[in-house]
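User: I'm putting together a teaching handout on how multi-component assemblies are represented. Below are the sequence lines for each component of a complex, exactly as they appear in our records. Could you produce the 3D structure of the whole assembly as structure tokens, so the students can see both representations side by side? Please keep the chain order the same as the input.
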Amino acid sequence: MNSQKEKIIKLIFTILAFASLLFLLGIIIVLFKESLPIFKEVKLHDFIFGKHWYPTYDPPEYGIMPLIAASFWVTAGAMIVCVPLGLGSALYINEIASFRQKQILKPIIEILAGIPSIVYGFFGMLIVAPFLQNLLNIPSGLCAFTASLVLGIMAIPTVTSLSEDSLSFVPKSFKEASYALGANRWQTLIKVVIPASMSGISTSVILGMSRIVGETMTVLMVSGGAAIMPKSIFDPVRPMTSTIAAEMGESAVGSPHYHALFAIGLILFLVTLIFNVAAEHISKKYRVKLGLNR
Amino acid sequence: MSINNEEKIKIKADNINFYYGQSHAIKNLSIDIYDKKVTAFIGPSGCGKSTFLRMLNKMNDLVPNTRAEGTLLFDGQDILEKNTDVVSIRKKVGMVFQKPNPFPKTIFQNIAYGLEVNGVKDKDFIRKRVEDSLRKAALWEEVKTRLHTSALMLSGGQQQRLCIARCLAVEPQVILFDEPCASLDPISTNKIEELILELKKFYTIVIVTHNMQQAARVSDYTAFMYLGELIEFDKTATMFTVPKQPKTEEYLSGKFG
Ligand SMILES: Nc1ncnc2c1ncn2[C@@H]1O[C@H](COP(=O)(O)OP(=O)(O)O)[C@@H](O)[C@H]1O
Ligand SMILES: [Mg+2]
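Assistant: Of course. Below is the structure of the complete assembly, with chains in the same order as your input.
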């Protein structure tokens, strides 16, 4: 190949590589630029710990604690659903399922992971919420509990498929060594396979959590939408993401409300960034531990 | 095939056949493995050496869709019978694999593992057994100051000796080696061979090797396999000087393999 052509191709790829970096940088700059003006209206401490979110009242109040609490409760509840079920199915697929079951289950899990979140929202709104409302005899089925349940189900495929990958990366030679020493299947699973894939499993849990925290459409549809401090898990709530989605359209560009919504976005951005960096860090450690990088 | 009626027989294989699905990997194999001797299996790649070795500690049970026929007597008890206690066989018959495969745990934990899964709780006992096993595997001096560091930091040869120590810790009667030096350098290989010669005082050893010189150096008896069949079985010294079968002669002189 002539060197002229090579140079041009190299240049194109360099530009592409830097373009994504540039976009990321642009997003961060816009987030900061549009968020910071809100702190002229309200102190950072009051913004985060304030218990009242009344952005359209006079005088307005910009305390996002109810939204943070809602996000926290919904996420925690969803984790209780998706971690045991997700890890359980990963272990089943990896250790117990026959070859044929594996061939059916793995693609199904991948398909579930690809279902758009609005479909989960519909499912939650039309089936789960009315069902829970009747079953538990609560005022509205659209509440934190329902949101947790639906989001938890939604995150199962993420947890399952990533942790199943890490279980299947455990070299066969470890299992053979364990069996050859007289260990049974259960001991091998608990003492060799799971510890060896622990970092991969934690990564899958963190990424599942990251998906739940950042999820917008589903929560908007099933969480009930009340921006007040939740007192029970059956209260309607408004997590941070759905607040932005619901209110961005009605807030005037450049108004304090508008800036406050950006600030919420910034916080979400930082939280998910931390999750992803943590996941990356742990999975790197995992490669070192298994000696895969040698 | 019995060739020495003076020796005590530890394992007696009688007319063994083994199938991976339709593929017939071991054909009508009969052989006696003598107590506290080293028996080497040689033969070209794919002739069924590992398959036979893995029958001896029932590792092939883990491979789906396989079938074994014949009788395989361990101290007179047929271990191919359906109701055989797999765990007790695997405790009596230890195995060292082709590629060193220490667990991603500390040196200490690697050796204690076999005791723990077999229900030993006594910490002092475990500590003592870890030291004993490492000494027997000629590794103690090299690792005694770093028992609690990762086993994966050891060199390949040290890892293989760790795997031997791990196997010794559960006090087996028989040790199976499946090409234990295939991934090691000459110096490490030499150490493992010396170790095998030392261990045969106390254990019955079966070793699969690709390396004919290794078989000649470490074994008392040699079995030559070809395409799933046992072609010749004899005292090592006899086989390497006056092989009876033309096929053995061809293999030993390097005509194929
Ligand atoms: N897990 C397996 N599934 C199917 N066939 C196998 C399996 N392991 C070994 N074989 C086949 O059985 C034959 C004997 O293999 P093996 O015992 O590994 O030979 P060796 O150790 O002498 O090289 C080979 O033809 C090999 O392809
Ligand atoms: Mg082999």
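A couple of points students might notice: The mean pLDDT of chain B is 94. Residues B 20, 23, 25, 43, 45-51, 63 surround adenosine-5'-diphosphate (ligand 1) (CB under 6 Å).
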